[in-house]
Write a structure and sequence with these properties.
- This protein has about 675 residues and is mainly α.
- It is built from 35 helices and eight strands.
- Helix 1 crosses helix 6 (about 140-155), helix 2 runs antiparallel to helix 3 (about 80-95) and helix 30 packs antiparallel against helix 31 (about 560-575).
C-alpha cells in the first residue's frame, strides 16, 4: 500500500503527493509532478541523526547505546516527534529482548509505550509533516526503517506501518539480528517480496538460521532451490546439524529435486544425514531421472561411508529399487572406486526380481561381477538360477547363459540336482542343459548321473529321451542294471532308439554282465523279444540260464533260421546238453516240470522246418522224452501224460510223439 503526503500539496494541481523511494522524491498522483523537499535548517538536523542512530543501535541489538542516544534526543528536543518515536522503539525493544528488563518492570514499560503511542497517534491524526521529514532524513538507512517496521507491527499501528513501508527496502538491511526478526515478520504476513529480499541478502543474515526457516517454511520451487546453495555456503554448521537435515528430508513435502539439492549440499558441508534417510525418503521416488540418481549416489560416495552404510545402500539397490535406478546407482558406486564385497544372496535376490526387465538384471549381473564375486559365490548364484528360479524358460535361459560367462564349470551337486529334480523348464529343459554342457565339465564327476536320471520320473518321456541322449553323447556311462532295466522295458515303438542308446553306452564304457541276455529273456515276454536287442546283449561269454533258454526255445517268434541258430548257440552257452535243461511250463491246464525236449514237444508252435531242426539238434545232443515229469506235483511218465491227453495235444505235438514212438509199446 502506498503512503500519501498530505501536509504538502502539488504546486500545479494541489493534488496529493506520494513518495518514490527510488528517486527519493514526492510525486503527484494526479499530474505526475515531482517535488523534492529541501531540508531547511530548523534546529532539528542533529536530533534527526541521533534518532536515526537510536534505531540503528536497536537494529544491531545495542540496547545500552540506544538508551544513551535516546537521552541525547530528549536533551535536544523532548517534544520532537522523532524523540517520541525513538522512545517508543527503545521501550518496545526492551520489552521484546530477553533479559533486557526485569519482570516487575515490564508492566510499567508497557504502560509507557501505550501512552506514548497515543501521543503519536494524536499528532495530525496520522502522519505529520514533521514525521514525514524525519523519515526523509534517514536517507535510505533501511536498518532504521526495519526497526520502525517491527515496532509499528507490534503496536498494530497500521497507518504508520504502511507509511514506513514506502521507504523500506529489505535488501539493504545490514543487521543480521534485525534480518532474523524481519524474516519472522515477513513470513507471518506472507510478504513474499520481503522474504526473497532477505534470503538474497546472504552477507547480512544468519545463514544457518535462515536455511532452517527456508527449508521448513518457504514454498517449494525453483526460487527455494536457488537459495539453498548460497545459504549452505555461508552457514556455520555444527556436527549435530545433520539431525536437522535428516528431519527435513524425512518430513518435508518438497519435491525430490529440492531434497536432492539439500542432501548434496549437506554432504559438501559435512552434515550429511544417515543413509537410511536417503533410501527411505529420496530414492523411493521411481520418477527420478538419471542425473538426479547419479547426483545423490555421488554425494553419498563422497561421505566416505562406513561398510555398514555402504552395504545397507547396496542391499536397498539390489532388492528394492527399480532396474533402471539400480543400474545407474551401481555405475556411480563403481566409478567412485569404493570397495564393495557383494553377498551372493543379494545377487540371487536381484536375479530373481521378476519386476525387472531381463536386460536390467543382466546389466546388474555384469556390474556385480566387477565386484569380484568368487567361485563359490558364482556357483551359488548359478545354483539359485537353476534350482529356485521359477520364471519362464526364455528368462531363465538368458540369465543362465549370461551366468555361464562367469563360471568355468558347474558343481557336481548343482548339475545333478538340476538334471534329476528340476522340472521348471518342462519341454525346454534340454535347452537349459545344453547351456550347461558348454562349460568345462569333468565328466568323471557325473558318472552316476545318467543312471540315476534313467530311473527318475521328473520329466516327460520325450524330454527324458532327449536329455538321456545328450548325457550319453557327453560320454556318461550307465549302470549295467539300469541299462538292463531300460532294455527290458523297451517297446516296439522305441526299441531302435533303445538299441542306439545301448550302443552309445557300450562305447562309453558300460559293461554288461555275462548274464545280461539271460536276464532279458527271462524278464521280457518272448513275444516282445527284439532280435536287435538280443544281438547287442549277446556276447561269446554270455551265460544262458535254463529258464532263459526255455523262454526263447519254447516261445520266441521270428524267422526260423534265426531262431534255430540262436537256439543252438544259446543251448551251448547254457552249459548242458541241448534239450536236457529243466524248465517249467503250463500245458493242458497243468503245471509241468520237465526237460526242455519234453516241453518243446508239448508246447511248440514253430514252423515245421524249425521244429525239425531243433528236435534233431536236441536228439543229437542226447536229449530223451522218456524221463519222468512232475505234473501238478506228481511224478508222471511222459508217455502216460501224452497218452491220456492224446486227443488234446496240438497237431505238432501229436506228430512229434508219433515220430518218436511215444505211443508205441516199445517206447
Amino acid at each position: 500500500m502506498s503512503s500519501q503526503y498530505k501536509s504538502l500539496r502539488c504546486g500545479g494541481c494541489d493534488g496529493t503527493l506520494e513518495y518514490n523511494k527510488e528517486k527519493k522524491v514526492w510525486v503527484c498522483i494526479y499530474c505526475g509532478n515531482e517535488i523534492r523537499r529541501e531540508e531547511e535548517y530548523d534546529g532539528l538536523y542533529t536530533i534527526k541523526n541521533v534518532v536515526r542512530q537510536v534505531l540503528v543501535d536497536l537494529a544491531y541489538g545495542r540496547l545500552d547505546a540506544a538508551n544513551k542516544n535516546l537521552i541525547e534526543c530528549e536533551k535536544i528536543a523532548s517534544d520532537y516527534v522523532g524523540t517520541l518515536i525513538a522512545g517508543i522503539c527503545v521501550k518496545v525493544f526492551t520489552l521484546i529482548t530477553p533479559g533486557a528488563c526485569q519482570q516487575s518492570e515490564s508492566r510499567g514499560l508497557f504502560g509507557q509505550v501505550k501512552i506514548q503511542y497515543e501521543q503519536l497517534r494524536a499528532c495530525d491524526a496520522g502522519i505529520s509533516s514533521e514525521e514525514e521529514a524525519l523519515y526523509e532524513s534517514f536517507g535510505g538507512k533501511n536498518d532504521a526503517f526495519g526497526v520502525l517496521l517491527l515496532v509499528f507491527d507490534t503496536l498494530g499501528a497500521k497507518v504508520h506501518l504502511d507509511f514506513v513501508n514506502q521507504f523500506f527496502d529489505a535488501s539493504t538491511v545490514y543487521s543480521s539480528k534485525l534480518n532474523a526478526n524481519l524474516l519472522t515478520y515477513a513470513f507471518r504476513h506472507n510478504r513474499l517480496d520481503m522474504i526473497d529480499q532477505i534470503f538474497s541478502n546472504v552477507e547480512n543474515i544468519n545463514c544457518k538460521d535462515a536455511l532452517w526457516i527456508l527449508l521448513n517454511s518457504y514454498q517449494d520451487g525453483e526460487k527455494k532451490q536457488n537459495y539453498i546453495p548460497a545459504l549452505f555456503e555461508r552457514a556455520a554448521f555444527q556436527p549435530e546439524d545433520y539431525k536437522t537435515i535428516e528431519a527435513y528430508i524425512g518430513n518435508t513435502k518438497d519435491s525430490t529435486q529440492t531434497k536432492i539439492i539439500v542432501y548434496s549440499n549437506s554432504v559438501k558441508y559435512h552434515i550429511a544425514p544417515a543413509v537410511q534417510a536417503v533410501t527411505d525418503h529420496i530414492m523411493t521416488d521411481a520418477a527420478m531421472n538419471e542425473d538426479q540418481i547419479r547426483t545423490v549416489i555421488a554425494a553419498f560416495c563422497n561421505t566416505h561411508p562406513k561398510d555398514a552404510e555402504l552395504y545397507d545402500l547396496v542391499e536397498q539397490i539390489y532388492t528394492k529399487h527399480s532396474g533402471f535406478m539400480a543400474n545407474s546407482e551401481m555405475d556411480v558406486i563403481l566409478e567412485s572406486r569404493l570397495f564393495v564385497k557383494l553377498a551372493k544372496g543379494t545377487v540371487c535376490r536381484m536375479l530373481g526380481r521378476a519386476d525387472w526387465l531381463v536386460s536390467d538384471r543382466i546389466s546388474m549381473l555384469e556390474k556385480s561381477e566387477r565386484c569380484k564375486l568368487d567361485v563359490r559365490a558364482n556357483d551359488a548364484i548359478l545354483a539359485d538360477l537353476l534350482l529356485r528360479n521359477q520364471e519362464d524358460t526364455d528368462v531363465r535361459l538368458a540369465l543362465v547363459s549370461k551366468m555361464t560367462a562367469y563360471v568355468e564349470t558347474v558343481s557336481t551337486a548343482v548339475m545333478t540336482d538340476f538334471i534329476l529334480k528340476s522340472a521348471t523348464d518342462g519341454e525346454r529343459k534340454p535347452e537349459v542343459l545344453a547351456e550347461l554342457l558348454k562349460l568345462d565339465l569333468n565328466i568323471s564327476f557325473f558318472r552316476e548321473v545318467l543312471s540315476r536320471y534313467l530311473q527318475s520320473s521328473v520329466d516327460s518321456p520325450e524330454v527324458k529321451k532327449e536329455i538321456s541322449q545328450m548325457l550319453s553323447d557327453q560320454g556318461l556311462q550307465v549302470d549295467s542294471d539300469v541299462l538292463l532295466d531300460m532294455v527290458c522295458s523297451a517297446q516296439s515303438s522305441n526299441y531302435m532308439e533303445t538299441a542306439d542308446f545301448i550302443k552309445k553306452a557300450l562305447q562309453n564304457g558300460t559293461r554288461l554282465p555275462d548274464s545280461a541276455l539271460s536276464i532279458y529273456m527271462e524278464r521280457v515276454p518272448p513275444q516282445q523279444y527284439h532280435h536287435e536287442l538280443i544281438s547287442l546283449l549277446h556276447t561269446t561269454a554270455s551265460q544262458i540260464s535254463d529258464q532263459a533258454l526255455a523262454c526263447y526255445v519254447l516261445y520266441a517268434e521270428g524267422d526260423y533260421e534265426i531262431k534255430v541258430q540262436n537256439s543252438l548257440v544259446f543251448g551251448e552257452q547254457n552249459g548242458k546238453s541241448f534239450g536236457t535243461s529243466s524248465c517249467q511250463i503250463r500245458c493242458l491246464n497243468a503245471g509241468i516240470q520237465c526237460n526242455l525236449f519234453q516241453a518243446y514237444v508239448l508246447v511248440t508252435e514253430d514252423s515245421a522246418a524249425a521244429v525239425e531242426a531243433i528236435v534233431n539238434a536236441m536228439k543229437n545232443a542226447g536229449a530223451k522224452l522218456n524221463p519222468m515229469m512232475t505234473v501238478n506235483g506228481q511224478q508222471v511218465k511222459f508217455k502216460k501224460f501224452a497218452t491220456e491227453h492224446k486227443a488234446q495235444l496240438s497237431p505238432t505235438a501229436l506228430q512229434l510223439c508219433e515220430q518218436n514212438k511215444v505211443f508205441s509199446i516199445f517206447f
